[in-house]
Request: fold
Amino acid sequence: MSVSPNTKRKSLFVGSKCLLWLFLSLILSSLVGCIGTEISSLPAIPRGIHTLGVTINKTQQGYPTSYSLDTTKLTLEVMQQLNQAGFKVIPPERAQSTPTAAILQIDLNLTSAYIGVSYAISVKLIKKLKLANSQDKLTSVATWSAGQSGFLRASDIFYLYDYTTAAVNQFIKSAQSNH
Reply:
């Protein structure tokens, strides 16, 4: 079965048109530098939180460490942010053993892509609560969370500091709206 020259030209035209759109979308996304979406869940107001421990968990897959994120620097920035907002920040180990303290857990997931890095940031407030039928036992439960995911050029990974502190600001505003 032979294919007519017109059919070949049409299929070549359609294929080149698709490649052109793909190429243009890649160029536009690299010019913009960042494609992101914000996700919020568990928007309950954090009540009665005055003492916090901060933990930052980072998962980083498949890209050079020259574009790495300094979690020590980020932890210090978040702790300073919380202190300025009036929270007492204690070591996470102490927060886990103190019944009235909570943990602000920040999860950063970074994965290398062809021209950049896809990321997901999750900020969760984990409180110890007495659940029904738990016989006075406290259970750690996420009671508030916010997050963001998107795509950055590898050279723009420093924006993750801003995105993380913005999510922590959401927590602070939410907690302060209760007072």
